[in-house]
Amino acid sequence: MAILKLYGGKQASCTRRVATVLHELNVPFELIEVDVMNGAHKKPEYLKFQPFGQIPYIDDDGFILYETRAICRYIAAKYPKSGLIPTEPKANALFEQAASVELTNFDPSASKAGLQLWIKKMGYTYPTDDKVIADHLETLEKKLDAYEAILSKQRYVAGETITLADIFHLRYGVYVTYDGSESDNIMNRASRPNVARWYNELVSRPSWLAYLDGVKTTTAY
């Protein structure tokens, strides 16, 4: 069987999200780096496989799939023993609830503020807007108060075992920590000890640590 091919950027947020899930499941893959800086993702040969001209997409032995969360769900479904997508109806419902919470309550503010914080941290010349950052971080603080209530009762966002819903928070969850010092940032507030516990456990996982320097082809674990 052909090795799974991941088309994306080694430093790109969504590429790393997919690579993290692949690593969680010990799935070998080859990174095919897309030269986004020179517009390779907008050329006709790329658009044949990703009509929106975005990264990443995968080629799994001829099966093409794009959209990060869809890719992650496909991989987890292909390897169901991992439990990253629970199959028992009630557990699955709680997973879907948590995944929806990430998509609608966490990602909108975390992605908008986090990406700009990352640009500032890296010293890039792209324009940023401090008011946009502040507004989204203020919104996220309130959302994380709800997370604290949830995580005070259970280890992970969907229950007592880790799921894709937890992993989906990575990357932008890390980006928003650039709002403060390592010991006092939005994900590590003393006022939200359970959020801090959960977040620090996620960023300590080998699957996340594996690509601190960027995503790379991984054929052995």
Summarize this, please?
This protein is α+β, with helices and mostly antiparallel strands and 221 residues long.
Summarize the structure in words.
Keywords: Transferase. Pfam families: GST_C, GST_N. One of its GO terms (biological process) is glutathione metabolic process. The chain is of the alpha+beta class and 221 residues long. It has two domains: 4-83, Glutaredoxin, CATH 3.40.30.10; 89-206, Glutathione S-transferase Yfyf (Class Pi), Chain A, domain 2 (Up-down Bundle). It has nine helices and four strands, in the order βαβαββααααααα. It has helices at 13-24, 44-47, 68-78, 89-122, 130-151, 164-167, 172-175, 193-202, 206-209, and strands at residues 4-8, 29-33, 57-60, 63-66. The chain has a four-stranded mixed sheet, covered by helices on one side. Helix 4 packs antiparallel against helix 5 (130-151) and helix 5 crosses helix 8. The model has no long low-confidence stretch (mean pLDDT 95).
